[in-house]
Write a structure and sequence with these properties.
68% of the residues lie in helices and 11% in strands. It has seven helices and three strands. The longest helix has 25 residues, at 23-47. It is elongated. The protein is mainly alpha-helical. The protein has helices spanning 3-17, 23-47, 54-65, 73-80, 84-96, 118-135, 144-164, and strands at 70-72, 100-105, 108-116. Helix 3 crosses helix 4 (73-80).
Length: 165
């Protein structure tokens, strides 16, 4: 029995008690959650030896992926899906470790820019292959066509989600 088997049984029990319960859709939602949680656990396991967690890795990876390896706090928080308080805590830790630098945006001292340092860049370049090596295994056995279909369905689901909020 897997962890999801127990979830499926609970969902089925709800459906028995509440026939209008959308079992199939909620099952997909719970599967998505289990997959996301499992990937986050794989990422955290790979990051443990660097004394990092998923949130700090995401900040570094997002900065690494920007054109000039910098971002303002608001944009960075949205890209990392982090609330301002947690982003501040994560950035404090990364700055103390010399992996990022925070400074005023030229021409607008009220806006804080967060920039990847040389040490931060080197760390991302060391970690990224390890994290991808672990997490991409979740797609083992999928054909290129299946991956494209999955991407299209996820994109549609994200559009639906954006229309709700």
């Amino acid at each position: 029995m897997t962890a999801f088997d127990a979830t499926y049984k609970r969902l089925h029990n709800i459906r028995t008690r509440m026939p209008e319960f959308p079992l199939e859709l909620v099952r997909l939602i719970r599967m998505t959650y289990h997959i996301q949680k499992g990937i986050k656990d794989l990422t955290n396991a790979a990051l443990r030896k660097y004394d990092l967690v998923d949130a700090s890795y995401m900040v570094l990876a997002v900065l690494y992926g920007t054109d000039d390896e910098s971002s303002n706090a608001c944009t960075l928080g949205m890209a990392c899906h982090e609330k301002p308080a947690n982003l501040t805590r994560v950035c404090n830790d990364l700055e103390e470790r010399g992996l990022i630098h925070r400074g005023a945006r030229p021409g607008d001292r009220r806006s804080v820019m967060i920039t990847l340092t040389d040490s931060g860049r080197a760390l991302v370049e060391e970690i990224l292959p390890q994290v991808c090596g672990k997490t991409t295994q979740t797609y083992d056995g999928f054909t290129a066509e299946e991956l494209q279909q999955l991407e299209n369905m996820f994109a549609r689901q994200l559009r639906n989600l954006n229309n709700i909020t």
